[in-house]
Every structure is written in C-alpha cells, then in structure tokens.
Amino acid sequence: MKSLDELDKLRQKLQQDMQVRDNDHEVRVTVSMGTCGIAAGAREIVQAMLEELKEQGLNNVALTQTSCVGLCQHEPLLEVARGGEKTTYINVDREKAREIVRKHLVQGQVIKDWTNPEK
Amino acid sequence: MEMYRSHVLVCAGAGCISSACKSVQTALMEHIDKHGLGKEVKVVETGCMGPCDLGPVVMIFPDGVFYRKLKPEDAAEIVSEHLLKGKVVQRLLHQPVGQTEKVTSFDQLDFFKRQTRIALRNTGVINPESVEEYIARDGYRALGQALSQMTPQQVVDTIKESGLRGRGGAGFPTGLKWEFTARATGSPKYVVCNADEGDPGAFMDRSILEGDPHSVLEAMAICGYAIGAAKGYIYVRAEYPLAVERLETAIAKAREYGLLGTNIFGTGFDFDVEIRVGAGAFVCGEETALLASIEGQRGEPRPKPPFPAQAGLWGKPTVINNVETWANVPPIILKGAQWFASIGTEKSKGTKVFALAGKVNNTGLVEVPMGTTLREIIFDIGGGIPGGKKFKAVQTGGPSGGCIPAEYLDTPVDYESLSKLGTIMGSGGMIIVDEDTCMVDLAKFFLEFVQEESCGKCAPCRIGTKRMLEILERITTGRGREGDIELLEELSQVIKSSALCGLGQTAPNPVLSTLRYFRSEYESHIRDKKCPAGACRSMLAYYINPEACKGCGLCSKLCPTEAITGEKKQPHVIDPDKCIKCGTCFEKCKFNAITTVN
C-alpha cells in the first residue's frame, strides 16, 4: 500500500460488492420468482439486471425477489421501489431489464410504456 | 470482487462450528449450484454473530433474514424457496421466548436491536479470511490516516482523550499506557496483544480474533507508530486453533497488500507482527508471565514495578493490551476521541462486550454501551432465565471477580460500580445462575480453577488456595465446622495482600463475594448440614415414595452399594446408611418415585 489515496480507491471498488449487506438501500428492485415468473424467464432477468448494475457501477440498489404477485399472464414482472414510489414493469425481457437500469435507475426516468399491458 | 444479488452469511464462530455449521454451509452451496445460482448468490463464512444458543445461524442479505438452528436438510428449502422464489421459510425463523410472533429480520431481534457494536463491528458481518471485505468496511483506513496525517503524539492524545480503558480486566487507561511507553527510554520497543483469554465462560477475544483478525493487526500497527515500535507479538492460546489459523491468514494477506512490512503507506514506517502460541496456562494471561513466555522462559509472573511500559519484552519498553481493547482503536482514530467519549458513562467510556453464559435464554456475545444495567443485559438482551426459574446471581469477571445478587440488577455496569459491589468487569464473562445453584459450590468451582492454574511460584497462592479449597470441600460435603467461615475470611485477606500477581491476589474473590451476599448459605451448610439450593448432593437424602414405586427393581439392580431392597412388585426402600448419594436411582427411575429430601 503506497498511499492513503490508493487505499481509498481500492475501498470504493470493494464496497460495491459489500453493499448488498447494507440495510438502507435507496432503491429496491424486486423480481417476481414464483413458478409462473421462473417459467416466463425471470431468472434471465435477474442475470441481466446484475450484469447491467455492475456495468453502470450502481451502488445502493438491492436486487431481491418475491413470489407470485397474481399477475401471472404479465410475467416476468419487476418492481422498482424508490422512496415511497413504486413502479411495476411487466413482460420484462433481458433487453428491457438492462434498459430499466439505464433509464430508470441511472437517469430516474420511468419507462411508462412498459408498465401497462401492450394493446 | 464479483457482484452478487444476494449474500448468504453463515456464522462460523466457535459456537456454530460445534453445532455443525460446516455441513449446513456445504449443503447450501450444493443446492445453490444445483439451481444454477452460483453467479447470483455468494456464500460467506463469518465470525461469531453472537446468538450462539441458536446455532447454526445464517443471515441472508439484502433482506436481512435470520434463520436459526439449521440442519443440512434445511438447505434445499432455503435455496428453492428463499433464494430462488424470494419466499421466507417461516419454520426456520426465530421466535424469541415470551413472544407470539416469529422474527423475520435480524434487526427486529431484541438481541441485536439493543446492542452498540464497536469492537464487534465486523464480527459476524465480514469474511474474516478476506482482507478485501475488511478494507471495504473502512479497514486499514485508520492506520493510513494516522501515518499520513497525524504525529505519533497526536495518536497517543486521541487514545487518551477517548477515555478507552483496558478491556482485559483491570481497566487501566489505554492512552496513558501508550504515553508511558512512548516516553520510556530503551530501544527497540514492542507491541503485544494479550490473546490468552482463559476465564471460564469468556470468549469475546476468541470471537474477535476469529471474526475480525485484521482489526487487531491494524490497531497494533497504529500503536507501533504512536510509541515508536516496529515489531508486534500476538500471544494466543493453543486452545484457539481457528483463531491462530485466521490470524496467520490475516498477517499473510496484510503483508501482501503492504499493510504490514516495510514502508507502509509510503511513509517510511515499518511494522510487522508475529504470533506466539501459548500452551494455555491461565497465569500466562497475567502480563509479566505472558512476556516471560514470549521470551521462551517459564510463564511465571514477576513483581511490578517495573511495569512493562518501562521494562517489558527482553527488558524493553512494551505496550501490552488485550484483544478487545485493540479492536476499539481503529474506530477511535477514524471517528475521533469525542465520538468514543460520548458513549458510556463518566469514567467508563465506550462499550463492553459480554459473554452471556449459564442459566439465561440467549447465550452468546453482546456488546452494549457502558452503563447499561445488568437487568437490561440479562433480561432484555439475554431473554431472562429459562424454565420459569428465579434469577439468583450473576458472576462477573471470572475467577478474579465475584457475584452480584438480584437486588443489584439495576446497577449500571461500569468499572467503578462493579468494584463497589465487590466484583470486577474483568474480561466480560457473565455467568448467570438461577435458584438451583448453590453459591458455596459456585465459589468452590472458581477456587478449584485458580488452585489448579496457580503457577506455584509464591506460597500464598500455591498453598493458600489449596487450604481454602479443602475448607470449601468440607463445607459442601456436610463436614463443615464452626469457625470455617472466619478461617476462609482470614485466609482470603492474607492471600489478597501477599500473593505475587493478579491471579493470586484475586483468587479469594469468588469466596469473599459469595460470603458477602450469601453468607446464610454457608451457615446452613455448616450448622444445619443442609444445602438451601438442593445442589450439594451429599447433603441430600434419597427416599422412595411407596405410592409411586411399582417395585420394578431397576433401582436395586443399578445401586452400586446394594442400599436398595424390596420384593418384586412391592415398594422398595433405601437404607440411608449404605446410600452413597450417587443419584443413579433418582436419574433412572421410570416412575419418578425417587425424591430427594434436603
């Protein structure tokens, strides 16, 4: 260790991995993983989310899962909770998941089109 | 490090290891692989989380869900339900005694909620074998800051102003100790960590070493800088093999990162640490004996002064602190003396780790601000006494301490208030006893311990404790004589004032403190030949209730002295003259027909 700066840089890099263990996440992303969700491909959504979160270097996002929320025909479902506001995305796929990270989580823009059943 | 959506923390403290956490961990990993979750879920082995009676315990993040008493068979359900589908497995949650609802998240548990964790800040949270996880939790930042932004004097001043006192027993101000050593002439100087924890019932140092070894290394390096030492030794007992192993890993990792060794943080400061494994003699926790043992001499104490600050290892100025004291140092440097001094009481700053053991619902490690009352620790955090029994006393400070009866439960715990009650903080062991414990027997237990552990160098300790033990044995077996209490008191005073080291000087304390609060128990043993708690076996008479006895004859078959006789299918009787009170018949009777009479 050559300097305090070097330690600080290393620490910031390492903290990303550890932030899962904090209990005060700003944003909580919940993927429905009931039988219906898994059958519709929710597992892939989680993978894609993880990859994109890492690429964007997002700290303070908790990625959790829940079971069937009762909208089986719209699976895979994904809910983003930030403060008191909640957004549920339906029929998510890998690409949509990555886009949700970039638009919603990074820029704070809700992608309204993906929250309603497609006509 | 990779990013995972979930971390599964498996407690691998000594308590959980003995309840087979390894097989739970293996099963979890197998099922995680089976479901292809290996890239999303990380399994992390941590140090002791605290609630040892619930082991093996697991925490799952980011939800903070806490599962307890796991078996390998439970792994399949945790993985398929919780990790895959996000459904909490209700049956594996903890339901605290006296509560009707199960607790999902660990921060809802009273056990955790009421704690303030400074020394245990990382224990049970990080993987002790990963220096990266320690760094992510601000590890080695205090060392970096001290080396690059503070003078050695400023470091000493910070520790002084924080009010930190030794957590090993006597409670000497840590900063003052450092200052004495910094000012002492003599070179080289040394830094020593006392990890020879030997008090019955105490395991806080072990947990810190096993759960957060880097915090001790970092603190020792900070001290090295403050006093001008380049070398540190950790004296750890051989009975703590896991602690030794994790310390070795930690030292190697710290050297790899250049956090120990030469030119640390590019400041020209050199510091390295070596481990010395002690063979587990209780007296080696005594600082002068410990230093002798590191030097390769017999682990025997010597008179003080000179104190180690002046003449320690190889006669050179040496700072020696215990593990828990060290663990407090990095946060003090990072957050400042004022922050630390704002926690605790006027003369006892910060927090103290206690090891709850004995007759209490939640056994394990707890860290609370100084000044927390005994009642809060034992009843709110510890969950009270099991089996609806009555609290009788709490023994603090191990063999050098004493016991506190129920009327003082509202005493705030700090160094001064405990010593006023005739006991000490000591290392922080707390053994809780209920109404079924005989206080004479308890005092005998501790005296037996010091008598065995006495190094024998000085006569008061070697012979005096032996004589005291003989008297206690006499009393508990119904052969006590008038005058025994006075004799015990006299012996105690003489040993206290004439023994060479702390071990001998405090050896009579368990006897004196039980005499102080439970003198009548001694008296009834001696005068009435009765043990009020019904614990001293030889004072009991065994008796067969003729109405409950079915005449099965099992007791007479098992009786080693043929004291039990009777016809088949007829009530049996015990001949009190032949009975040696072994208790076999009492334990084995299927009809609960045998009772004891005090």
Automatic annotation (TrEMBL), chain A:
Keywords linked to the UniProt accession: Iron, Iron-sulfur, Metal-binding
Q: Which InterPro entries match?
A: Thioredoxin-like_sf (IPR036249)
A Gene Ontology MF term for this entry?
iron-sulfur cluster binding
> What's the protein name?
NAD(P)-dependent iron-only hydrogenase iron-sulfur protein
Automatic annotation (TrEMBL), chain B:
| The keyword Amino-acid biosynthesis belongs to this UniProt entry's keyword annotation | no
Has the keyword Iron-sulfur been applied to this entry? yes
Q: Entry's CDD domains?
A: TRX_Fd_family
Q: Name one GO molecular function term.
A: 4 iron, 4 sulfur cluster binding
Name the Gene3D superfamilies for this protein. Answer: 3.10.20.600, 3.30.70.20, 6.10.250.1450, Glutaredoxin, NADH-ubiquinone oxidoreductase 51kDa subunit, NADH-ubiquinone oxidoreductase 51kDa subunit, iron-sulphur binding domain
Q: Which UniProt keywords apply?
A: 4Fe-4S, Iron, Iron-sulfur, Metal-binding
Q: InterPro entries this protein is in?
A: 4Fe4S_Fe-S-bd, 4Fe4S_Fe_S_CS, NADH-UbQ_OxRdtase_51kDa_CS, Nuo51_FMN-bd, Nuo51_FMN-bd_sf, NuoE-like, Nuop51_4Fe4S-bd, Nuop51_4Fe4S-bd_sf
Per the record, a Pfam family?
Complex1_51K
Residue ranges constituting the 4Fe-4S ferredoxin-type domain according to the UniProt record: 540-569, 570-598
Protein family according to the UniProt entry: Belongs to the complex I 51 kDa subunit family.
User: NCBIfam families under this entry?
Assistant: PRK13596.1
Task: Please identify the protein, giving its name as recorded.
Answer: NAD(P)-dependent iron-only hydrogenase diaphorase component flavoprotein
Q: Provide the species name.
A: Desulfallas thermosapovorans DSM 6562
